[in-house]
Amino acid sequence: MELFDSHAHLDDEKFKEDRETLIEQIKQEGVTKLISAGYSLEGSKKGKELSQKYDFIYTTAGISPNDIPQTEEELWIMLEQIKQMATSNQKTVAIGEIGLDYYWNEENKELQKVAFQKQIEIANQLNLPIVIHTREAVMDTLQILKENQVIKKGVFHCCPLNRELVKEALKLEFYISFAGPITFKNSKNAEEIIKMVPNEKMLIETDSPYLSPEPLRGRRNEPRNVKYIAQKIAEVKGMEIEDVASITYQNAKKLFNIK
User: Fold this and answer.
1) How far apart are CA 247 and CA 242, in angstroms?
2) What is the pLDDT of residues 216-254, one digit of tens each?
3) CA distance 169 to 171
């Protein structure tokens, strides 16, 4: 069984002590493709380095809503660097993670929207999909996607378990990526949302080192734990885990144009 972790942060400091050992281990344990997702200028640079060092690792480049600077002038400089980074690396498979986050940042909503829209423009210029982060900002996120054409579409990473969001995202032809929260015992709507998403539109991810799935909550999350996400989907949909792994693997390859 081969697994594709479509969103992890292997650049994170939590992997500093054992990153290389872990990367070798996860490949041996069946995670044969992985995206180390960018979220800041530095994170995007480190993701690029990892993608160039390991054959099975790919990356994204983007500035998340939690990492945008304080002024538009600083933002333009950052986004030019993101564009150059994506252009110079064939293994940059998307622009992201980008989007809106009103949970952590309410004071700069307008600048978040500008950053989101400008990065959609970059994705369109480079013919790349986008990876969307949204938290406590469902309506504004959907409004921007409806008002700004996204040529290659993309994915809602670690998608919030919100019926309206998933329904509208699917109408817009986006993929839905499931992560650790679908396994949480107190997770509302998880099974309903899993059933809402057609097989051909679902991805799986860990968002490592965050959001460890059951039965590993409280520990550092790792890409090998993506199997628990696949297992939960299999249980809810009445499928074999091998089939969930295969379907999500092929979906990720298709979305990110990986041969």
Assistant:
1) 9
2) 999 999 999 999 999 999 999 999 999 999 999 999 999
3) 5
Return the pLDDT at 166. Answer: 98
DSSP state, residue 220:
P
Number of Cβ atoms within 10 Å of the Cβ of 149: 9
How far, in Å, CA of 98 to CA of 118, rounded? Answer: 10
**Three-state secondary structure string covering 33-74:** EEEECCCCHHHHHHHHHHHHHCCCEEEEECCCCCCCCCCHHH
pLDDT confidence tier of residue 188, bands split at 50, 70 and 90: confident
- Structure token digits, residue 219: 């520990």
The answer to whether 9 touches 209, Cβ cutoff 8 Å, is: yes
pLDDT level of residue 76 (50, 70, 90 thresholds): very high
* Beta carbons of 154 and 174 less than 8 angstroms apart: yes
- Please provide residue 13's backbone torsions phi and psi, each rounded to the nearest 5 degrees: -60, -25
Residue 143 sits in a domain of what CATH number? 3.20.20.140
Question: What are the tens digits of pLDDT across the range 122-147?
Answer: 999 999 999 999 999 999 999 999 99
The structural domain count of the chain equals 1
